[in-house]
Design goal:
Largest sheet: 9 strands, mixed
Helix content: 40-55%
Number of strands: 9
Number of helices: 9
Structural class: alpha/beta
Order of helices and strands: HHHHEHEHEEEHEHEEEH
Shape: elongated
Distance between the termini: 70 Å
Strand content: 15-25%
Radius of gyration: 27 Å
Amino acid sequence: MNQMAPVVTNLDVDLARTFVAICETGNFSRAAERVFRSPSAVSLQVKKLEEILGRPLFRRETRLVELTSDGEHLLGFARKMLKLNDDALAYFRRPVMEGRVRFGAPNDSGVFAVPEILKRFASTHPHVEVEVRLDTSAELRRRCLARELDVALFTGGEGGGLPVREVHTEMLVWVGLKNGCAVTRDPLPLALAEQGCFWRSLALEALDRAGLDYRIAYSSEQCQAQIAAVEADLAIAALPASVLSPRLVRLDGPGGLPPIGSYRVDMMTREEAGPVAAALAEHVAESFREHAGQGMRLFA
């Protein structure tokens, strides 16, 4: 009695790597050079891969490398496999990093950005001590110039002579309670940060240009306190567009309040702080990249 061949339940990463190499180089010979195999070995790998999947991956009637529909689907899966494989190897092969890094961020990022960043960094650098300071952007700049911080985020204005790179930009909008009355009051009741805040300056400049009367009804460094005043319909506020929700609606635009403009988040990394600071800076930048365009409040 003939026994059935065992069903293959795993895709070989080497086969996936060869397949991706063929797709990216457009040629079996060039793919062979990339994966350090002979062209005949590459052809055998493709044949084995097609046998495992039970589907043709390339159209054979052309001299060009042309994927079938199944081949196109496999290319997406194969790239994900290779990335996961390479990320796992990179994680365990990287040297253990130890030390201490001083990280500064504006007050409200303590609610949004900092927990996400620290969680990500701790998962890959568990032996690094991170000293966190939350403060105003102006104070963080001062501490950077005094070399009291290794990595810092701040908003508004230029770097003040510091080497910085932009990691985030977002529109500031007028926010009010949906169907609320605060926006109809004269003068307009505002919930803003304290004097010296870049957002506050932009908001008041917009109202002054439009010739609108206003009063500062609530003042707080904490974005959450400003949002609380808006949700109670006691005031309107100038906040990042990412805070908008079914309850908190945008009030500027055609027929509404004057536009405010955008703000950016800059990051300073002190090069002489070494690889620990550089690693944290990369995690910060990656956090912002991953959340860009997702409407998530990573920074506010």
